[in-house]
Amino acid sequence: MIESKFIVDIIQATIAGEKYEEQIANQVQHLEEVEYEHMDTGLILFLDPLSDIKPLTDQQLHETFGEADHELMKLELIEETFKIHADVSVHFTNGIIDRIEIWNKSGDYPEHDLESWELKRIGAENQ
Predict the structure, then answer these.
(1) pLDDT for 32-76, tens place per residue?
(2) Pick from 22, 33, 53, 118: most CB atoms within 10 A?
(3) Terminus-to-terminus CA distance in the chain, angstroms?
(4) What does pTM read for this prediction?
């Protein structure tokens, strides 16, 4: 199971309102963090299934993403203390969540866990 509340919050906020939200949310309890790859301005977290997961079917993937890459990018991560204004994306391979990417637009991304954060929908200020 994913241990990081931060990562679970990212996934839940990203999939909120998706047509297959419940099915995707059910994947979370069967995933574990397997590798963190830190770059100067970002972080990639790789996930693997602990047990059988019901992936999105090819039809569901097409309905969700069309011909585009299988990624949901709806959020910006904000944390003022460390000057983080980052794009966040949730990626799928074979219908299963396999990684989370965070890329800071304001400089370096810290190597330690964040203690507080805000997840803001991209474009929410215009709605």
Answers:
(1) 999 999 999 999 999 999 989 999 999 999 999 999 999 999 999
(2) 53
(3) 35
(4) 0.93
44 class by beta-carbon count within 10 Å (0-12 exposed, 13-18 middle, 19+ buried):
middle
Query: How many domains does the structure of the chain reveal?
Result: 1
What is the spatial distance between Cα 72 and Cα 19, in angstroms, rounded to a whole number?
Answer: 13
Q: Where are the beta strands (DSSP E) in 23-125?
A: 31-39, 42-49, 71-79, 84-93, 96-104, 118-121
Helix (H, G, I), strand (E, B) or coil at 57: coil
Count, residues in the chain: 127
Q: Output b/e per residue, 88-117; b: 16+ Cβ within 10 A.
A: bbbbbeebbbbbbbbebeeeebeeeeeeeb
